[in-house]
Amino acid sequence: MRVVVGCGNLYRRDDGVGIKVIQRLRSALDPLSADIALHDAGTSGMDVIFKARDCRQLIIVDACRTGSDPGAVFRLPGSELELPHTPTLTLHDFRWEHALYAGKQLFGERFPERVTVFLVEGTDFGFGDGLTPPVEGAIPAVLAQVKAALAEAELAP
Asked: pTM of the full predicted structure?
């Protein structure tokens, strides 16, 4: 099974880009691709752990804030983003970065080795719905890159 997880909050403007990508993938992927699962994890890292268990490929899509140009798309191996969990008091207390680290600890070989993360540079994370134009404009590029990553895994042993 290949799994794509969109993360974020639809009511925090650009933070919802991961979920918007999942929504668009649902209509853009070949319906015959029975080994691809699409999930909206919201802001729950725990959802990422359990959706990823026993899959052979995991792709995560989320927003980021690095100071780059709004709408910039970054592709990174999940291994570079894993973080041990340090509790805080926010909605993002246990994020997907923590899930990548914890999933390996909890599930060992049952957690995917092939993890790719796509991040989209956001500009507005305030309350409200709808993506800003640069982030909305980045979605076709993200869709193309996610589809390419899924195709790469399909060909891999």
From this structure: 0.90
